[in-house]
Input
Amino acid sequence: MAFRPLLSRTLGLTQTLTHSHNLSQLRGLQTFSLPDLSYDYGALEPAISGEIMQLHHQKHHQAYITNYNKALEQLEDAIAKGDSSSVVKLQSAIKFNGGGHINHSIFWKNLSPVSEGGGEPPHGSLGWAIDTHFGSMEVLVQKINAEGAALQGSGWVWLGLDKESKKLVVDTTANQDPLVTKGANLVPLLGIDVWEHAYYLQYKNVRPDYLKNIWKVINWKYASQVYGKECP
Amino acid sequence: MVVAVAAAAASSTWLTCALLPRQGWLHGIQQPTPSLQWTNKKRCCTRKAGSTITAKLELKPPPYPLNALEPHMSQETLEYHWGKHHRGYVDNLNKQIIGTELDEMPLEDIIITTYNKGDILPPFNNAAQIWNHDFFWESMKPGGGGKPFGELLQLIERDFGSFEKFVEEFRSAASTQFGSGWAWLAYKANRLDVGNAENPRPSDEDKKLVVVKSPNAINPLVWDYSPLLTIDVWEHAYYLDFQIRRPDYISIFMEKLVSWEAVSSRLEIAKARATEREEEEKRKKEEKEVGNSDNQAVEMFVDSKSDDSETE
Output
């Protein structure tokens, strides 16, 4: 889902390419680039500070992409040479960095400024599904916040859809594991990054306050779109 | 504290167990290894109305003022890292263990017990993080850095090739611990690399220094290693001062903060402990052999038909 716009943008990449990067394109290896935000870094204040948004996007997400591209290039070489040891050894780098790219690409779409509807609860089928599965939006928010706060170390808390059973689920993943690692049928509707880098400069150790405030800028329109595609 | 409430709400079954002294954490769980010398204390105290029972863990301050590591590690970082994170682990563990068998146990015993051979119980995270942070503050000092000396330097050169190679390996472990966790220099004695297997032919070569990394709260105590040095690579340890630049944080730690005196004294203790254990195991083995030979003597007396009998 999130990849198609990224790939089409990649094909138009220009000045920042290195020589080896050009060769990769010639060989057909898709490389990835940092997706733009559809809002300014400061537009989510006071829920999330502009300082955090800029670092998070320009440094953290970019680093995942850079390392993901590098790992993919190394993987392609290893596959071509039949170097199974290297193929297996590269899996963790691909999972960490590819997962980081996947998760953050979704995350930026999960947020929007209040002026553009951030925080407005979902109407339509997703709103109805939330009430059916959880009782109410308040209960869902409480559940997500409790799981997000209790997560030890680094990870994500998700609202997902099981596309087989059509049920909504709340789940967490460790580190940069994408939601699909918890179930092949799980489609992420909404993910909240609870790595410390996502909130520390503003909220310090008080992760529960970050979780409480982020709902003011959650973009339910995107979540509804994704839901609507799976449950027309 | 909201986090504790949330955690409790998410896992109410163990919290209920914790209020029943006879059951609780050790119900159905194997005892820790004999070397920890934990005994099953009877809970003989009665709760009088109006009296409060408190678990006794306290937050230990670093062995220097909170601004003493400036400019390499800011006072602000210490205020949050020690004053909020470390303090939070202490407060939360006390709430979790009060009224249970874990209460009044030494911290290291709580860690091993709740690690539960990998099937981790809820108090583990708090207990291990308390220990890890105590160890971390004591691994640093104002005006730290430089090189190790004496026997520690000798062992480092023996087991890593050179001090520079050790630093390279330690930095690599610290930078590649993905997500939250720790990097360690540890002393490993007579432990094979396979799980908790006993080394059948221990030798001096099995005693060596190793660099290891661990995720989240896990530490080398659970592998029966002796930790000598640690660096915290949870983001909260460096984010205020370095943001995403973890490699810079690691460099500053090595160049300006490490207390090699602390590492040396821990090495001495670790070696002494290893020797003590060896002697105890040797003694046990000898007792067992004496026991066996006693049995054989009984059989010889019973069998009087043997040619070795003294009667003609």
